[in-house]
UniProtKB/TrEMBL annotation:
This is YihY/virulence factor BrkB family protein. The chain crosses the membrane at residues 27-49, 86-106, 126-149, 169-192, 204-225, 237-265. It holds the Pfam family Virul_fac_BrkB. The keyword Hydrolase does not apply.
Length: 273
């Protein structure tokens, strides 16, 4: 009990000293700049994959508040209608813009570990791009698994003469795809992004916190917006933008606190018993 209390106190002090809420506001701004290039780039992959635009938007809508989905879909339709190829301004420029959010996260995690960014600008930025591409690959896998999950289960069922219960369990497990994928994304982010060598295991506590925390906060905020917070009635046309920014702000808080959780665990392991 005393250890848990000490951890919570240390976490509260770190949150205050690291200006978490100010950093989260910065992340929200960069997330806003990144989301449309990111989605646009992912849209360019759809012709080569057995998934549709609706599949991608449905994945986002599982967590995004209703008003924010409206503005995402509306602006995406406008971009698609103006530029059918989507890559007229260059695939590199698209990925570069989409990596702004990851670059901001790297800086926030470095502050959580109290380390300076000693990597060159090119290396740090290249890491942001690689993490962005990795995140896109993971999201694509998350979209493909439900598509092919049934076929894979039937194949295993027929090849290995498995019981009917196996097929039922396999179908049920497909509902865990999104949370597991989310955990993998956060785990990779907390493991690779900071300018500090840590083990993959050391990144697990923060990844668990961020995965569970982000899902709960997103669903809770979405419920609040849908039932109580009528931002469109209060703020008019910019209501959807405000909802989107608040969601990004909450996301930034969760991500940074997840990094702080890992930093505290790492520092405690180094202390002598």
């Amino acid at each position: 009990m005393g250890e848990a209390t000490s951890f919570v106190k240390q976490l509260a002090v770190k949150i205050k000293n690291d200006d978490v809420f100010d950093l989260a506001a910065q992340l929200a701004y960069y997330f806003l700049l990144s989301i449309f290039p990111l989605i646009i780039f992912m849209m360019t992959l759809l012709p080569y994959l057995p998934i549709t635009k609706d599949d991608l938007l449905n994945l986002i809508s599982q967590f995004a508040p209703g008003d924010s989905m409206d503005i995402i879909e509306t602006n995406l339709e406008q971009v698609l209608s103006r530029n059918g190829t989507l890559l007229s301004f260059g695939i590199i420029a698209t990925i570069w813009s989409a990596s702004n959010g990851l670059n901001a996260i790297i800086k926030a995690l470095n502050k959580a570990y109290e380390v300076e960014e000693t990597r060159s600008f090119i290396v740090a930025r290249a890491m942001s791009v690689v993490l962005t591409l990795g995140m896109i690959a993971v999201v694509v896998i998350a979209l493909l698994l439900p598509v092919f999950g049934e076929q894979i289960g039937v194949f295993l069922f027929s090849q290995f003469n498995l019981s009917d219960e196996f097929l039922s369990v396999w179908r049920a497990l497909r509902f865990l795809v999104s949370p597991v994928i989310l955990f993998i994304v956060f785990l990779a982010l907390y493991w690779v992004a900071p300018n500090k060598k840590i083990t993959c295991v050391s990144a697990i506590p923060g990844a668990l916190f961020a995965s569970i925390g982000w899902v709960l906060v997103s669903l809770g905020f979405s419920f609040y917006v849908g039932n109580f917070g009528n931002y469109s009635a209060t703020y008019g046309g910019i209501g959807a933008i405000i909802v989107l920014m608040i969601w990004f702000y909450l996301t930034g808080i969760i991500i940074i606190i997840g990094g702080i959780v890992n930093a505290i665990f790492t520092s405690r392991k180094k202390k002598p018993c």
